[in-house]
Write a structure and sequence with these properties.
heterodimer; A: 330 residues; alpha/beta; 11 helices; 8 strands; B: 324 residues; 5-stranded mixed sheet; 12 helices; 14 strands; 37% helix; globular
Chain lengths: 330, 324
């Protein structure tokens, strides 16, 4: 705590509130039918991406997964661009071609979220490879879940990154469930971070509900990466407060996790935890925390207004963005 | 300045020239420092370990790492065999092919996959893939099928400078084929421009990769029968030079397509379909496809040689179009 600036501590609260309000409103407008398709709420996991991204510069890269709204917002991506993308409009990050699972804002190093679990892990590893080849100091962080940790892409990438001492941080968001399957039923080790030993890299188990703990662990991993000492595997223990995906009504909470369990995790809401930290250390007052929340709520409302008023793409846009060096249509 | 080289040397020269020209170009693959397949000879000494990366056997991992490196300004060249592409299909399809479009044009991926097709040499089903049609079906790749040393060099150089994902299907049956090549920028071969390998007036033979030399042999045999065959090498399947093929069929009225890939949904199928749609009234005979039989590649040479197109099969097909 002593080595963390007030600016970063407050910024982490701002970004957590931004993500929370964004997700709450997304659930509302989605159920009102304002846009369709799958969307995976990040509620309950905000401290993970926010803590990690607070340790990064704009010139660093991130990549992520289908539970994708929190990562770009944590990195400082445009809120309006994210919301307009969910609405399928031309002012979205991807001009309406990516949608909820594929947010990307390349202007500040967000290399994109992947709807295929673990598929962005090799990609982020490759960005780090470029840093090494060019002798530059940027790092990359890839967010993936407990489910993804079982994919070959993860294991291959960790081996490559450690072998070549690449500046990449493997950030496993262990939210306990891959859809309905508990990680205890799919991971053969007690902690996913234990697997780091197999790749000769540090494995760190962190309280993912605590933004300060996430920031401190990430800062250490980033320092190591920039010094050319190679990758780190961080396992953030966290929890998905909502169901796996909007529009997946057949998944019933009671069938794979109990209300008691959800209730216990909700007591460790990452925003409550961080606000308490800030109040206890005299960084912000209760009223100031509430003001942060209100400001972020209105920022999200502005983004919704913006998205609703942004035009849809034109039919001719169907054929745009296929090629950097265009070729004739077949 | 023109010189003579074999196909595999032409590829080697293309890599050397482009790595010298642009420091963002690097190459990665299995056993490339010792150049097990010949195309990467001398690269380690010339360019060092930082730009010539031997990889672990982790195709999904390093095919994807090439994508990530390309996104942030590098120009990776990945060496592989077609048969190992299957284990990297997620990175190829979900990331390389889709990323630019899915992210609304934000992603630029100047990555080249060099995939050698070893077939016809007793390698059996796991090491004899000619898989370009499967990638033609997936939007997002530029697909190159060089049949001569000139095109092996020129198309690879163009691919390395291109800003989209390219797959070069290098034909292992042609590795030792000799021909004339150019140096430097004069060697560049544009995408989407077919080569009329032989002019003729009675029947058009479109041949792909290793089928080009057999089509040329067939054309000589047909000439002895008084049949004038025009042989067209598309050189790139995506983009495909439809114009040259349609013009030729307009002249000859007959089409044989020769494709070493499996015949169902092959490149030959697509070319036949285009000609049926766009030049139906020019045709004087049904289009003939000469492609690999729809079975796996058997090990024993007695059976393997029955699978692929041959000059004899091309001659038979061309004669059949003349009988109509």
């Amino acid at each position: 705590m002593e080595n963390i600036s007030k600016e970063i501590l407050v910024q982490m609260l701002e970004r957590m509130w931004l993500i929370r309000h964004f997700e709450v409103r997304v659930m509302e407008v989605h159920s009102a039918g304002e846009f369709t398709g799958a969307a995976h709420p990040y509620i309950g996991e905000e401290a993970v991406a926010v803590g990690a991204c607070a340790a990064l510069e704009d010139t660093d890269y991130i990549a992520g997964n289908h539970r994708s709204h929190g990562h770009p917002l944590a990195k400082g991506g445009s809120v309006k661009g994210a919301m307009a993308e969910l609405y399928g409009r031309v002012d979205g990050y991807c001009k309406g071609k990516g949608g909820s699972m594929h947010l990307a804002d390349f202007s500040i190093g967000i290399l994109g979220e992947s709807g295929i679990v673990a598929s962005s892990v090799p990609v982020a590893t490759g960005a780090a490879l470029a840093a090494k080849i060019r002798g530059e100091k940027f790092v990359s962080v890839v967010f993936f879940g407990d489910g993804a940790s079982n994919q070959g892409a993860c294991h291959e990438s960790m081996n490559l990154a450690s072998l070549w001492k690449l500046p990449v941080i493997f950030l496993c968001e262990n939210n306990q469930y891959a859809v309905t399957t508990s990680y205890h039923d799919s991971v053969a080790v007690e902690h996913i971070s234990d697997r780091a030993a197999a790749y000769n890299m540090p494995g760190v188990l962190v309280d993912g509900q605590d933004a300060v703990a996430m920031y401190e662990a990430s800062r250490e991993a980033v320092k190591r990466a920039r010094a050319g000492e190679g990758p780190t595997l961080i396992e953030a223990l966290t929890y998905r407060f909502e169901e796996h995906s909007l529009g997946l009504g057949r998944v019933r909470r009671g069938e794979y996790r109990t209300e008691d369990e959800v209730g216990e995790w909700r007591l460790r809401d990452p925003i409550l935890v961080h606000e308490q930290t800030l109040i206890d250390h005299g960084i912000l007052t209760r009223e100031e925390c509430d003001a942060v929340s209100a400001a972020k709520a209105s920022e999200v409302e502005e983004a919704i207004d913006f998205a609703r008023n942004s035009p849809y793409p034109e039919p001719d846009d169907l054929f745009e963005d296929m090629w950097a060096d265009p070729i004739p249509a077949p | 300045m023109a010189s003579n080289a074999i196909y595999i040397e032409a590829i080697n020269q293309a890599i050397i020239e482009e790595m010298e020209r642009d420091t963002s170009v690097f190459i990665m693959g299995e056993d490339i420092r010792r150049s097990v397949y010949g195309a990467t000879a001398g690269l380690l000494d010339r360019f060092g370990e930082n730009r010539v990366l031997d990889t672990p056997l982790s195709e999904n991992g390093f095919f994807g790492a090439a994508i990530g490196a390309s996104l942030v300004g590098m120009r990776p060249v990945v060496e592989t065999l077609t048969s190992f592409m299957w284990v990297a299909m997620d990175q190829l399809v979900s990331q390389a092919a889709k990323m630019r479009y899915m992210f609304g044009g934000q992603a630029t991926l100047p990555v080249v996959y060099r995939a050698t097709m070893f077939y016809g040499g007793g390698s059996a089903a796991h090491h004899s893939d000619r898989s370009y049609p499967m990638f033609m079906n997936m939007p997002g790749f530029k697909i190159l099928v060089p049949a001569t040393p000139r095109d092996a060099k020129g198309l690879l150089k163009t691919a390395i400078r291109d800003n989209d994902p390219c797959i070069v299907f290098e034909d292992g049956t042609l590795s030792g084929a000799a021909g004339e090549i150019e140096a430097g920028d004069a060697a560049l071969v544009p995408f989407g421009v077919a080569d009329v390998a032989r002019e003729g007036s009675d029947v058009t033979i479109v041949a792909i990769a290793g089928a080009v030399p057999m089509a040329l042999r067939a054309a000589e045999e047909l000439e002895a029968d008084g049949i004038s065959a025009e042989v067209i090498d598309p050189r790139t399947l995506v983009p495909l030079d439809k114009g040259t093929i349609l013009d030729s069929v307009g002249k000859t009225g007959r089409l044989v397509v020769v494709d070493p890939a499996h015949k169902v949904c092959s490149a030959a199928s697509e070319i036949a379909s285009i000609v049926s749609e766009e030049a139906f009234w020019d045709l004087q005979a049904p289009i003939m496809k000469v492609a690999a039989e729809q079975v796996h590649i058997p090990y024993t040479p007695v059976l393997e040689r029955l699978v692929y197109p041959s000059a004899e099969k091309v001659v038979t097909a061309a004669r059949a179009t003349m009988d109509e």
